[in-house]
Amino acid sequence: MPALDVVTRHPANPIVTRDDFPVPLEGAYNSGCVKLTTGRYLMAARVNEYNQRTAIWLLDSDDGIAFTPRPQPMAVPQTASWQRYADSVIYDPRMTIIEDTGELLMTMACHSALGCRIATFRACDHDGRDWEFVDYQGIPCHRNTVYFPRKINGLYAVLDRPNLAGNGGGNGGIWIKCSPDLRFWGAAERICGPGDFLNHAAGGLGAGAPPILTERGWLCIIHCVMPAANTLIYSVGAMILDRDDPTRMVAKAPQPIMVPDAPYEMLGLVPSVCFPCGAVVEDDGEVKIYYGGADRVTALGISSIDRLLAACSESC
Ligand code: BMA
């Protein structure tokens, strides 16, 4: 039996590569993905040109495995209020459908000389053809922000990661914060940090896919960072938050649920990276986990609610 058997790599991996796009790209990775009410899948990939200019590129799929890029990358606003905080790279898009309102929301990290801020975009239609920029959340520096798929106590909620000094910011740990309107944010609480996990998260951690509501609470698929010699190893971890009070971690996976191992996770712009940004739960309990491989490709891991919950074997 393999050492880790929670997530199975899909045989079609990597499912999205730079060769799929109509322009030269260095990579297409760290993709968010949702299943729309139509049953189709919408992916948002981070794409890098060779000059490291970045964009978010949307792709469509009928089965969640074979994706077709749209003709152009997603348009971003041409306004001063957007560009002031996003005149450098934008990356790591994560999408969530909010059950209470039916809204399709996207977050992305936006860099400028002033640091990293998280932007919220909202789809103007049901399949994400047009998007409106809602606002930036809070002040720099935050990363790895993803919406819960339901309001909590009547408020939108996100998992968030303030960047603190050291370990590329990952020491800040995973927080939750809430908003009545997607613009004003508060009720921030720290959920966990590197000290709550073992060595695989010694270099930091951050939210990954949108939390999934299960019988044991909010199942969160996260990324964990381990310093090793002259590199960082990004693995996939899991934890469960209390259903009614998600500021509380109630269980965690004592070891990563997936570590970089396949060639497309080891060789790329940055080696040894599995970086999850999306998860889709199917009716039969299968969970499709979308993750970036080595900062170059998008890959698919297949798991299930049962396997993921079983992996979270340590109560907190
Ligand atoms: C993180 C983010 C990700 C990236 C990862 C590995 O800090 O920047 O976008 O995939 O590092 O390089």
In short:
It contains 3 helices and 22 strands. It has 316 residues and is mainly β.
- Fraction of residues in helix: under 10%
Q: In whole angstroms, how far apart are the ends?
A: 28 Å
What low-confidence regions span 5 or more consecutive residues with pLDDT below 50? none
Ligands in the model, by name, code or SMILES, are:
beta-D-mannopyranose
Strand content: over 45%
DSSP helix count?
3
Instruction: List how many beta strands DSSP finds.
Output: 22
Whole-number radius of gyration?
Answer: 18 Å
For the record, the CATH class is Mainly Beta
Which term fits the overall shape?
A: globular
The average pLDDT is 96
Q: Do you know the CATH topology?
A: Tachylectin-2, Chain A
Q: Supply the number of structural domains.
A: 1
Main β-sheet description: 6 strands, antiparallel
- By CATH, the superfamily comes out as Glycosyl hydrolase domain, family 43
Structural category: mainly beta
* CATH 2nd-level architecture: 5 Propeller
Order of helices and strands: EEEEEHEEEEEEEEEEEEEHEEEHE
Topology, element by element:
Blueprint: E1 8-9, E2 27-35, E3 41-48, E4 54-61, E5 68-69, H1 80-83, E6 90-97, E7 104-112, E8 115-123, E9 131-137, E10 142-147, E11 156-162, E12 174-179, E13 186-192, E14 205-207, E15 212-214, E16 217-228, E17 231-241, E18 249-252, H2 263-266, E19 274-281, E20 286-293, E21 297-304, H3 305-311, E22 314-315
Antiparallel strand pairs: 1-21, 2-3, 3-4, 4-5, 6-7, 7-8, 8-9, 10-11, 11-12, 12-13, 14-16, 15-16, 16-17, 17-18, 18-22, 19-20, 20-21
Bound molecules: beta-D-mannopyranose.
Beta-D-mannopyranose binds at residues 30, 91-92, 168, 234, 270, 273, 275, 292, 295.
